[in-house]
Amino acid sequence: MELYSEARGVDIGGTSDISVEDFKKALDQLERNTQHTLPVLKKAFVQDTAHIITFLRHKSALHFVIGRLISSDPYEQLEAMECCCNASLGDAKSCSLIANAGAIYMIQIVHGTNTNLVRVALTTLGNLSMSKGATCKLLHEQGLVPALLAALKVDETRELAAKALCQFTYTYLPQLSDAEVMNCIEVSLPFFEKSPEVQWFVSQLSPREAARIYLSASPITLYSLRLLNSVQAITSDNLRQKLCDLTLH
């Protein structure tokens, strides 16, 4: 996404569209000229999701980019993460392929100390969570929830971590154990009053019986939760789109 590149003062070719020819050229030269081609790919993914499909069908392209996530070059590592982030805007099948190839590395990145890299990884994992089903199951098994909760405790990554948790639990909440739900609430409550995204997350957890019992004895007023639940009920049809939109800004 352009926001990350602009924040680092990196010029990736202005605002003009990437032509099909330029995209295919970048894809073919990916392994020979990585620093030039990764910015082209990530920009093209935002312009047309058809480029994402072409990228995923290209022999070894995805695995090459995933391999750059553990590069010793911080610039290359961040460019690769941003490339994965924009590719995660594709359909459910695209997200499944990306998650299977690289989710474990992205989750490891979230546990790291490079804030810029962590922020992009959080956005990517949130996008991948929207594809439901087997992808969410894979993310859960690979330790997504503990990683997001760890990021929730950090000021610089709290909002994005909460957004990703909202995206993940939007459909996967029924599969979480009571212990996991209660742990999510315990970690979130200290930040409830300060973070709107944490408020949405706690509200999303509150229909679970274990959550209701735990929250009934918490400092959070019942009025606050009722208000949040009312807003969430009114906007339930649009919540999924709201969460997707939040990742794009």
TrEMBL record:
<dbReference type="InterPro" id="IPR016024">
    <property type="entry name" value="ARM-type_fold"/>
</dbReference>
<protein>
    <recommendedName>
        <fullName>Armadillo repeat-containing domain-containing protein</fullName>
    </recommendedName>
</protein>
<dbReference type="InterPro" id="IPR011989">
    <property type="entry name" value="ARM-like"/>
</dbReference>
